[in-house]
Design goal:
Layout: E1 11-13, E2 16-18, E3 47-48, H1 74-89, E4 95-102, E5 108-112, E6 118-119, H2 124-137, H3 145-157, H4 160-169, H5 176-181, E7 189-190, E8 201-203, H6 205-217, H7 221-232, E9 252-262, E10 265-276, E11 282-289, H8 296-310
Antiparallel strand pairs: 1-2, 3-5, 4-5, 4-11, 6-8, 7-8, 9-10, 10-11
Helix pairs in contact: 1-8, 2-6, 3-4
Length: 328
């Protein structure tokens, strides 16, 4: 199958700008928990240890504080927030999944469908930025002022033009093996019938979680610091998703939104990946494939409210919904 690629506002394929059409896609929602690898779903709304040496704890999420008579502990409060998130997710149409990884304890909580391949939209721009920074530091490529400005534009306002220019200049689809093998995006695939292009990819929420974990756990400190700053200072078009964790959590986000084709019809995807908490303690990834007929606003508010509920922030979350007709 061939066709035109819809992007975050607009996307270029073969140098031609394509504006999104207002039609949308299909989905189911369930809650699960498991370790870092993808696999069968498990009982909804629970969490398991992923081999951390410290005791299991989720006390850093949301409001903290010591336990006093007549109060609930931070762990109990977080369990309630996770349960509330599970309840909020339950029954949402389409395919929806969320993961929250505690980098301090290694615990990974998940809800919904986190192992279903969904169009990445612009979340893949984070992997592109990571790869370019690493390759430059290793002396494999040179990033001039133009390239560095384009990386900044990809991260700040999710520029499609910048992503396409960088994709074409620095290896095109040869970058994908790095994303899979080095960053743990083992579920990353190109879409059959489409050109091997950054905008024609699918991955899972597990893949995005592993990508963000690589950035925070393994990337060179200087490059990590750059990405953390960039993701914490995104333009208004990306102030939703992980951003909804609340200012006190100092979140950083890379969002992705686009209209895509799948069996059942064209549909929106609204995805978000990032971090929250002191020292970027929590990795967060949410992917949402909406059913046809649901608007971008539904997707943006849904993923944002899930994140807000996990961190005890206000709901409905105050977010900016991108304008699909202008890309702003």
């Amino acid at each position: 199958m061939t066709g035109t690629r819809r992007g975050d506002g607009d996307t270029r394929q073969g140098g031609r700008r394509v504006r999104p059409r207002l039609l949308l896609a299909a989905l189911t929602a369930v809650l699960v928990t498991a370790g870092c690898s993808t696999g069968p779903t498990t009982p909804e709304g629970s969490a398991v240890s992923t081999g951390a040496t410290e005791p299991r704890s989720t006390s850093g999420l949301g409001p903290a504080g010591g336990r006093q008579a007549g109060t609930v502990s931070a762990d109990e409060a977080q369990r309630r927030r996770f349960a509330a998130t599970a309840a909020l997710l339950k029954g949402k149409p389409g395919v929806l999944g969320i993961l929250v990884r505690d980098r301090r304890t290694g615990e990974l909580w998940r809800a919904g469908t986190t192992d279903h391949p969904i169009w990445t939209a612009s979340t893949i721009k984070l992997a592109m930025a990571v790869g370019l920074l690493e390759r430059s530091r290793a002396g494999e490529i040179t990033l001039d002022a133009t390239a560095r400005r384009q990386i900044a534009d990809m991260l700040n306002f999710s520029s499609d033009d910048a992503a396409t220019a960088l994709w074409n200049r620095y290896g095109r689809d040869q970058q994908l093996n790095r994303f899979r093998q080095r960053y743990g995006m083992t579920g990353l695939t190109t879409v059959a019938g489409y050109s091997r292009f950054w905008g024609h990819l699918k991955c899972t929420a597990d893949d995005l979680q592993r990508l963000m974990s690589y950035v925070l756990d393994d990337l060179d400190p200087a490059d990590r610091a750059y990405l953390v700053r960039a993701m914490r200072s995104v333009g208004s078009i990306q102030r939703w998703g992980v951003w909804a964790a609340g200012a006190d959590q100092r979140p950083g986000t890379k969002d992705g939104w686009s209209i895509e084709p799948d069996p059942g019809g064209e549909h929106w995807v609204t995805n978000t990946v990032g971090f929250a908490g002191d020292d970027q303690r929590y990795v967060v990834a949410v992917m949402y494939q909406l059913p046809p007929g649901k608007g971008i606003d539904v997707g943006v508010h849904t993923v944002s409210d899930l994140v807000a509920t996990v961190f005890g922030a206000r709901t409905p979350a105050r977010v900016t919904v991108p304008d699909p007709s202008t890309g702003r």
